[in-house]
Amino acid sequence: MKSLRSGVIGVGHLGRFHAQKYAVLSQLAGVFDQHAERAAEVAAEVGCRAFPSVHALLAEVDVVSVVTPTSTHFAVAEAALQAGVHCLVEKPFTLDTEEADRLMAMALQRQLVLAVGHIERVHPAVRYLLQAGFGAPRYLEAERLAPFKPRSLDIDVIMDLMIHDLDLALLLTGAEPAEVRAVGVAAVTDKADMAHAWMTLSDGTVANLAASRVVREPARRMRIFWQDRYASVDFSNNTLHVYHRGAGTVPGIPGVRDETVDLPKRDALAAEIEDFLSAVLSRHPVFCDGAAGRRVLAAALQVRAAVDAFLQH
């Protein structure tokens, strides 16, 4: 992968981390940010060039990460694809599904890899559950809570945080949203900062999802229920417990066996970027391609519409 020349467009809080990973995994040619001082700072840190424009950077790279505000994802990714550059776009993919469709069509026409940065797909607990053979769950619930930070305020909490768990619900079931109910509150910004969604999927699975970006204590947890077992995941602490019906080993709960799954420690962003670079070289499917990014974007837009209806009621 060292043969690939890489770049990062947008080196704010998250983009800086992208640049750090590319500097290790590839030939990091340079970065661009609309704030030239920030670009120069990150370039000096990782040992690359700060480019004066997006197009100047695109002329010198094979692959690029787009880590700009969501409102600019489409324009920047479109420029990258037009320049023949493979593209990893941070989540949410685009502002709407029409933009997503146009990018997917461009990537297909030019035979370029287009990936979307849904990083929880790389989490060891998710990889384990996908390979465990448990089948589609019947019910899942998740809470994704974060203290307020003055970034990503161009999008609401649905696109900022809940979209991770929406993606996992669709990934673990292979189903599509059939019915969506949701409520939300604009607590600090002019957009929904807290939201709760109840979603019935096309296979009958129910997903109960809560997200907030205005709490004191952060949390990233999910519980997934099948007919004969359930799993409890703590994404922050990298833990996974699977509770099976069978010989009782849980004090006070007869007939339930607790399996603590030993998960490897993993740098999720490095794994995501490494997967992207490997896909460019070998053309294997990426963890999250444009179609998957569009699918969860469409689900998030359904939740937003339900929240908007609640706020206007």
From TrEMBL:
Domain GFO/IDH/MocA-like oxidoreductase: 154-225
Domain Gfo/Idh/MocA-like oxidoreductase N-terminal stretches: 5-118
Pfam family, one: GFO_IDH_MocA_C3
Top-level taxon: Bacteria
UniProt-listed InterPro entries: Gfo/Idh/MocA-like_OxRdtase_N, Gfo/Idh/MocA_Oxidoreductases, GFO_IDH_MocA-like_dom, NAD(P)-bd_dom_sf
GO molecular function, one term: nucleotide binding
Protein name stated in the entry: Gfo/Idh/MocA family oxidoreductase
